[in-house]
Amino acid sequence: MDVQIRWTYITPKKQEAVLVSDWTDAKEALMLADDFEKTGRTKALEIIDRGGTSWSKKELQKLLKEIESEPHDVVAYFDGGFDHETAQGGAGAVVYYKQNDHRYRLRANRRLGGIKSNNEAEYAAFWFVMQLLEELGVRHLPVTFRGDSHVVLKQLSGDWPCFEDDYNAWLDRIEEKMRALGIQPVYEPVSRKQNKEADSLARQALDGQLITGQTELTEKG
Q1: Residue 109 · residue 93 · CB < 8 Å
Q2: What superfamily does domain 72-217 belong to in CATH?
């Protein structure tokens, strides 16, 4: 969970100044906040997450304790593929997350029927990721979504309009699930090379190779 610190302090000349930190991990932010308070010049200290929610030190400490046993620091990759000859689609997803001080990777794919285009396969792949997050128990947390479909990510973020009825139906379904789970999305388009894990899973699904596996990662994993 990334946050920013907004520190209002009193200068040696008794003037107020406000400093805003770079985005940093919540645990590191709490250590920084302790250092700021040791100066004896702190007037106010506010911690803000990427969703715009403001936290006090005490509130953030309580939150981190509560979520430690739940999946958090979630990064989800997705990719969809479409075979024009068979009119079949494939969805691939890779979800990285932390839980109980351990790091995990979930890899899964799915064969898709009733898909009309590659773009629709990308929407279906994003929906597949949402279902995986629900099964993992991800609730009321920020999640970073990465994929090489800039169309899907830009339309979900509202940066690009969507005029196709079929795609709008997927958008509505995804956004409804996002609200139900309380997920605060961060959309990060990536290159195809950076999305190779999810791409490979989508291709395997098209070939009929269905995969579901969870791995605990080492420090080098």
Answers
A1: yes
A2: Ribonuclease H-like superfamily/Ribonuclease H (3.30.420.10)
